[in-house]
Amino acid sequence: MSSTEQGTSSAAPAEPTTAPESAAAPEVPESFYYVHGKDKVVHKVSAGALQHSALIHGMISNLGYTEEQAKANPFPFENIDGDILQMVVDWCNQHKGKPTPPEDTNLPKQKEKLFDLVLAVNYLEIKELLTYCCKQVAMMVKGKSPEEIREIWMIPTDAEDEAAEKEAKKRAGKEAAGETAAAAGDAK
Amino acid sequence: MSSRDTEMEFSQLFGQLDIQNKEINLSNMIFHEDDVFRQLNELIQTTFPESSKPKIRFPLLKLPQLVLLECIENLDVLEIILFSLLSKRAKTIAKLIRWNPLDIQLGSDGKPQIQLRYSLNPGRTWITDLELSEYPYYQSSLVGPTVNHYLFMKNNGNAIEDLKQMAEHICEVFRSPIREITIVEQSLIDWIIKFQPTIPYLTIEKDVITSVGTLDCIFEDLKVTKHFVLNSIRTPKKIQCTEPISFPSISIHNSYWFTVPLILNGNNSIIRLYESKLTPKDINTILKEWQKGAKLQNLKYLEIQTTTHLYDNDCSDEIFKYLYPTSVHRNEGRPKTVSIDDEWTYTLPEVVVVHNITRSDGMTLSVFGSFRDLKRGGRELFLGMQVWHKQP
């Protein structure tokens, strides 16, 4: 839990990003949880918004945190860049308690970030957002020629694949030989 | 250059773009934001080919497999084909998805095309066209209620060979068999016999068959499960066919070789013979055998176009000799259509008089037809014979 403690101490927990309050707030006070990414910036997110993420929802259900405990121990997602986590949190807040529309206009537009976003969304198990992201990925090659598709999606040719496979085998062989030699040295 | 000049230049480019427009979603006539970006991208690439290579890269193959497959599932049919052609690995990935089965049709209007259609969505057709073109491009068109999406691809100088390879590739990726093929070249017959000897629909174009042996191969090695169409053949030797054709529905042009035994010994339900050499006496034999009931038990419709030197009444007498048909002036419940195959229902001509012959099992055979004088002498006889059951 050291990373969580570092996250809360270094990343200004006093100013977490919050979901916009709706005019017709529910009578029961909403509980909030805290998450942070690689940049340790803590985001305050309502339980309703976090329900989109099967992973976080499962963590909340299993841990049974009180709000104080949750504030003291933000969920750490060290493998997700801060700006990507921000996008995800924003999307979850925008879609809190709403049915997801067939065409989502709130998707992050920066296509350069799409790969990291897809990985993060897949990791956090946000099914609807993953569906939208996958559609975006497919849209990248709409109307493109084969060579453009190859370039955009970085698809290697058969020759490149074969060369990479040979290289990987060579490397694996060398590593295995190194391990054998090291084991022999230890035995002596 | 003034700003107005620049604006004019871009307006002209946009005009050109409109003409060159390679893909417009005509299915719903909505011009999406993505279409605008795509066209702009095309415009930039046409104008600045070197400096306009796509900047955004997405390492698709580095995605977790399930996510990667979900991305691929969002591609449309033509995009899946293009993707699967990129490399062996891409093809393997595309094959991992259980695509909805496709109706695959090879060749139409004599063009090296592959038409693809989902049976659940027949209003949308994807067409891969392997005509010689400079570069691959897309085009869409709205024909009545049907949307056709074309992918024009460059062939390697032999469109038929490319067609075969592409068909094999598509069948493998989509795990769907070929549903229909139009043979425009003899090599396609050898190929389809090896690749998929059972096929629902087979059409052989005019003058493709030039040897008796090829015709024998078709009847021996191919199984046509729905409808077989044979257009005119050009063989140096006269065809002599002794074994009946086991395909359920057959339409044969230049059918001089299709004899009475072939009709009587076959199990065909639809037989359509054009430029036949059958005589009124032959037709009488066929009708008698049908009435006896031992043969032609599956027959639903027989159509014969032949020539005769007999006049109307003499010809009718010859055809109905010892059959004593009843002449009917009204429809009396006879179906007005015949199902030639699963896709094609043929509307029968409206006739004033129909001659009915009945069989002991209650089936009726209605004979109707017309005569036409030929300039070269003689008369053309066009006969339709429909088998049906009178509802009580």
TrEMBL record, chain A:
Per the record, the domain of life is Eukaryota
Chain intervals with Low complexity compositional bias = 8-25, 178-188
- Domain SKP1 component POZ residue range list: 38-96
Query: Which UniProt keywords are given for this protein, alphabetically ordered?
Result: Ubl conjugation pathway
- Which residue stretches, if any, does this entry annotate as coiled coil? none
- Annotated stretches, region: Disordered: 1-25, 160-188
Q: Where is the composition biased (Basic and acidic residues)?
A: 165-177
> Does Heme appear among the keywords?
no
Pathway given for this chain reads: Protein modification; protein ubiquitination
- The SKP1 component dimerisation domain covers 127-170
Under the heading Pfam families, the entry gives: Skp1, Skp1_POZ
Q: Which InterPro entries match?
A: SKP1, SKP1-like, SKP1-like_dim_sf, SKP1/BTB/POZ_sf, Skp1_comp_dimer, Skp1_comp_POZ
Q: Name one GO biological process term.
A: protein ubiquitination
The protein's job, in short, is:
Probable essential component of SCF (SKP1-CUL1-F-box protein) E3 ubiquitin-protein ligase complexes, which mediate the ubiquitination and subsequent proteasomal degradation of target proteins. Regulates cell proliferation during embryonic and larval development.
Q: What PANTHER family does the record tag this protein with?
A: SKP1 (PTHR11165)
Q: Which family does it belong to?
A: Belongs to the SKP1 family.
> What name does the UniProt record give this protein?
Skp1-related protein
Source species, please?
Answer: Caenorhabditis nigoni
UniProtKB/TrEMBL annotation, chain B:
Q: What are the F-box domain coordinates in residue numbering?
A: 57-102
Q: Name the PROSITE patterns for this protein.
A: FBOX
InterPro entries from the xrefs?
Answer: F-box_dom (IPR001810), F-box_Sdz-33 (IPR012885)
The protein's name: F-box domain-containing protein
Record organism: Caenorhabditis nigoni
GN (gene name):
Cnig_chr_IV.g12321
